[in-house]
Amino acid sequence: MSALYSIAEIRQIEHAAKAELPSYTLMQRAGEACARQALSLVAGDDDIHVLILAGPGNNGGDALEAAHYLSQFELHVAVALHADESKQPEDARKALQRARESEVEFLDVADAAHLTRQRWTLVIDGLFGIGQTRPIGGKLRACVDYVNTLRCPVLAIDIASGLSANTGAIIGGAGCVAVRATHTLSFIGDKPGMHTCDGQDFSGNVTVDNLDIEEKHFSAPRAQLNELALFASALKPRAGNTHKGSYGDVIVVGGAHGMGGAPVLAARMAAHAGSGRVFIAFVDDAPAYDSVHPELMMRQADRVEFGAASVVVGPGLGTSRHAHDVLTRALDAHGPVVIDADALNMIAAEPGLQHKLQNRAHHASIITPHPLEAARLLDATTAEIQNDRPQAARLLARHFKSIAILKGAGTVIAFPDGDIVINTTGNPALSTAGTGDVLSGLCGALLAQGWPATQTALAAVWMHGKAADQLVDLGVGPIGLTASEVIPAVRTLLNQIIRDHA
Ligand SMILES: NC(=O)C1=CN([C@@H]2O[C@H](COP(=O)(O)OP(=O)(O)OC[C@H]3O[C@@H](n4cnc5c(N)ncnc54)[C@H](O)[C@@H]3O)[C@@H](O)[C@H]2O)[C@@H](O)CC1
Ligand SMILES: [K+]
Question: Can you tell me which residues bind AMP (predicted)?
Fold first, then answer.
């Protein structure tokens, strides 16, 4: 399991471990691990110049300790120290002393040209770690801006400075800066902020070193990375003696005037992901059939009984009176419901619909908002949602008693008990119209086939992203991938993982 720990949890683990170890042990381990990774990043280069940025706290201490280790090798180590020595924590002060006694050049940070004189082979970012509390400003900002122009590898210690380890947002928000690392060596445990929002862009390749802290100090995590193992129990080969009734019905509700494509995408995905029968309930006039996929059944929404079918409500639904009435019926239905797009907007606008959703507690409900829809549901701004995506997803799940899939870079799947899973598949090729409809249709299909809601949400998000990754590998995207192309790729992937893992 790939556990993710919040800053508070990391502090607790660190505190417990430190109580049983001689002081300074963890920083020595951290510095040595960092130096080892640095050496592997410059292996093969000659005339190596390593720039180490060391900040005022223990993150800077790790950097200084790394400087000491690296100075024992055939390379030039330069340290830019941004710390008031009288205020350094004890371990960091010790590390500074060791670095001063080593073959390390200390740059004069008062001289504006101290960084630019040299062509750097590698930069190590030890400005701030999990203790950063305010945006990077002043001279340090210029330093970060400079590092971000370099082409060489940039190794962040613990977390890229400027990035929040809890949220993946840049500390201070729009207009503020963070180090754009190519590699991050994170200590004790992995952290949510490296995998959602700006986390992937600024962390680069993430590795975790647990600093040999004993297992007993690690608490049960409330967050983890999504992976196949989390939903493998739901992957089942088909039995021979089955028929279409064995694989459930999906009813996609939507398709107001001018938005008929959205439910068609969801429905096509539902059919390609194995649902026995797929219907589209149009709130406005239904077309006779889908000429590409005539197996889909088109109906007028007011004539459709939901029964125990899996209902996907929202794609292209609009917010008309009629749409509202159909949504009300869908929320009263006894089967699993996936709620997307305009259905979420109507729920956000009306407490009565919110109560209906909250009262569905013993039927599965999955909501799939993007950040703007999440903002409407939580009466917040999109910036506030993006500033703490894990927390926003948790609030959605708890408040609406549903599984919440907060879409975007590093999709967060949250459960009503407060646990979250952050997805690792997917790429910007998915930033195009219709991919959300495909995701909701995929959820609907898995639910219709009897998958539990938890595994459904995890698998749907993982496969949707993975299929897009595979398409990009083939050159189909990231530019110009269409939602329709994701559909057959998901089908291939689902069949493959059932074959390989069921
Ligand atoms: N304490 C320990 O035992 C260990 C600590 N570790 C390292 O220590 C880090 C955490 O250390 P700290 O808690 O000292 O925190 P940091 O080193 O992340 O930074 C805290 C310091 O930065 C200052 N600061 C915060 N934001 C600032 C800003 N925008 N501009 C200027 N100054 C700012 C704070 O006043 C404080 O002095 C971890 O990320 C990790 O790298 C590791 O060595 C593992 C063991
Ligand atoms: K750092």
Answer: 407-411, 436
Does residue 230's CB lie within 6 angstroms of at least one atom of ligand 1?
Answer: no
Could you identify the atom of ligand 1 that is nearest to the CA of residue 136?
Answer: 29
Query: Final residue of a domain: which of 222, 253, 287?
Result: 222
Q: Kindly state the average pLDDT of the residues 47-51.
A: 97
Give the contacts of 235 (CB within 8 A, at least 6 positions apart): 497, 498, 501, 502
Mean pLDDT, to the nearest integer, of 81-104? 97
| CA-proximal residue: ligand 1, atom 24 (nearest) | 132
128 lines ligand 1 (CB under 6 A): yes
104 contacts 77 by C-beta, under 8 angstroms: yes
Q: What is the 134 CA–ligand 2 centroid distance (Å)? A: 14
Q: Decide whether any atom of ligand 1 lies within 6 Å of the 59 Cβ.
A: yes
Structure tokens at 144: 């970060």
With the most atoms of ligand 1 within 8 angstroms of its CB, the residue from 10, 14, 58, 98 to mutate is 58
Q: Are residues 318 and 416 in the same domain?
A: yes
Do 142 and 243 reside in the same domain of the chain?
Answer: no
Cβ contact 279:336 at 8 Å: no
Q: Distance from the CA of 58 to the center of ligand 1, in angstroms?
A: 5
Full domain range(s) for residue 24: 3-222
| One domain, residues 159 and 259 | no
> Residue of the nearest CA to atom 15 in ligand 1?
131
Distance set, CA 185 to CA 109, 212, 305 (Å): 25, 14, 55
Closest ligand to the CA of 32: 1
Report residues near ion ligand 2: CB below 5 Å: 125, 156-157, 161
Number of domains in the chain: 2
pLDDT digits over 280-289, tens only? 999 999 999 9
Q: What percent of the chain clears pLDDT 90, i.e. is strictly above it?
A: 98
Question: Is the pLDDT reported for residue 217 higher than 80?
Answer: yes
**Which ligand gives the minimal distance to the CA of 61?**
1
Q: How far is the CA of 160 from the centre of ligand 1 (A)?
A: 12
Q: 196 C-alpha to center of ligand 2: Å?
A: 17
- Count Cβ atoms within 10 A of the Cβ of residue 175 and give its class: 0-12 exposed, 13-18 middle, 19 or more buried: exposed
Say how far apart CA 349 and CA 345 lie, in whole Å: 6
Which CATH number belongs to the domain containing residue 477 in this structure? 3.40.1190.20
DSSP string, 247-307: G-EEEEEE--TT-THHHHHHHHHHHHTT-SEEEEEESSPPPS--SS-TTSEEEEGGG---T
For the entire predicted model, the pTM comes to: 0.97
Contact 256, 285 (CB under 8 A): no
Contact 311, 333 (CB under 8 A): yes
Of the candidates 201, 222, 243, which is a domain's last residue? Answer: 222
Burial class (CB in 10 A: 0-12, 13-18, 19+), 25: middle
